[in-house]
# Entry
Amino acid sequence: MEIIVCVKQILDPYGMVYYDHQASEVKKEGVASVINPSDELALEYALKLKDSTGGKVIVICLGSSNAEESLRYCLSVGADKAILISTQDIGALEAYTTGRLLAKAISHLHYDLILCGLQAADDNTGLVWAVIAEELGLAAVGGVREVLTAGGERRLVVHRGEEGGERSILELDLPAVLAIESGLKLRYPALRSRLAAQKIAIEKLSLDSLQVSPEEAKSWSNVKLARFSLPKPKRRGLLIPDESLSAFERIQLLMTGGITTKGASKLSGEPNEVAVKLAEILKENDLVKTIKK
Amino acid sequence: MGAEIWILAEQKEGKLQDISLKLLSEASRIAAKLGGEVCAVIAGENLASAVEPLREYGSSRVYLLDAPRLKDYCPEYYVSAISQLIKEFKPEVFIFGATILGRDLAPRLAAKLGVGLVSNCTHLEMDQEGVLYQSKPVYGGKVSGTFICPQSRPQIVTLAPENLEKRHFPQPKKAEVITFKPKLEGVRVTYQVTGSISPDPRSLPLEQAEVIVSGGRGVGSKENFKLLESLAGRLGGTIACSRMALDEEWLSRDRLVGSTGSFVSPRAYIACGISGASQHLMGMRDSGFIVAINKDPKASIFNVSDVAVVGDLLEIIPRLITALRTSDE
# Structure
């Protein structure tokens, strides 16, 4: 099976990115770049399928040259080939354009299956998988939680997540696009494959080689950033600014509507009453399973 | 008909889902400022009974996509039917819930129509020109990004359900019902649903759990974790623990949540007797809905909770389980 895995390099979602209100900009110095977590899960599915059915795994990434590190890592865990579509000419791209460019590049490759994470952890748009499927005219399943072979290489069984933790079992023919939501953690690189990976050249494509001009790519973009700001408070709950901030900072946060810690509805008192109230809250939030009789 | 603001109403087995009314409340809020028409789109079979509740929450028009092929969600049929509807009636804005259905359908529609999509929004505002300002947490929730689609129409957005409430706005006196029969012959369906499973939540790895009941030093003993297990069972979830509980050997390493264990983001995280050391918070602060139970009102865990319960978990949890059981009978 020839499997293509689309990966995105993002700023570590657990890193110290923050919005500097004074300077009106997002600060991200020193934050590491990582492979989007659900793309890593997608890569693990690809490698598992390669283990059982043979074939090749190609990783493809749209990014600047510092994405090479992530691609090198993908090679070290077992991918056979890595392709980087360079965005030096146009800078950061929104999801729709990313999907179109990836689809264009993929259209020149042989493939049976395309895997990617359901969404990127930095912008949580979750559109790229659908654009790739639409542009290439492929079947697609979103929110995949398991991928299994099904007697014969051209057919797969996948589990799709549904409400309440249920899963639907779906069968489909290849070629197809699967957008991965959960799965096993990406394997660690063995020393041997790490060394082998050093010798594999990462193929670099420019927009030019895809026959797309920067202007054309820019014209595809529909969504524009209006502004960044401090995180907005959730509707529910009180605003209780972090006590470790100075009074000035706390007032500033309240004035600008941004808050770094959640407020909480407080319950205390007689255990029976607290339990009943808490039960109500859990029910209101759809967290209580109905017992199937 | 002025500018139309559409919402996708969801039905399951013919029953209108709550998200639909919440979306209508949000659409009505924006429309009130600008005078747009709020319309509900609903696909399925035998949908007549959905019209009245949709009107009650603000739809002045209901588009019924009524066909046997639309009875259950099938992406190809739904995308085809709804694109035909959009092509004919040209809405300005189309709002979906960021539900399982919404996050599958909205991207497919945006891709097919070649229009912009902003997902998981928490705040919407509309300006004088009818441009929707869509705000959402980015960079792991540490920054808020506000986005616009200046040109492409409809402006498609999915809204995070946790931020929505059902609220009544002035109701239209009557909801105009438009029954639209989409042309679905020749639409290729690409997968078959052959079954469904409910995996035992207790056997799932922590990263996949929908609901986690987690215990820290306050649980007190290995025995007491049975209480948390019962609660987890009742909520369809699984148990986990903090570093403190692991060091006491009350649970095994695979149950550890924190920077040296698992990073989890379940729909709900119930932290019992956990103080909220930063290593632990790092592992669970992205959880959707956080409930913390702790004797200490100053516990740091309360800084990230949606519900702060100050009390003895050994008193509260058994009573909570009873309260949840009673509600069934």
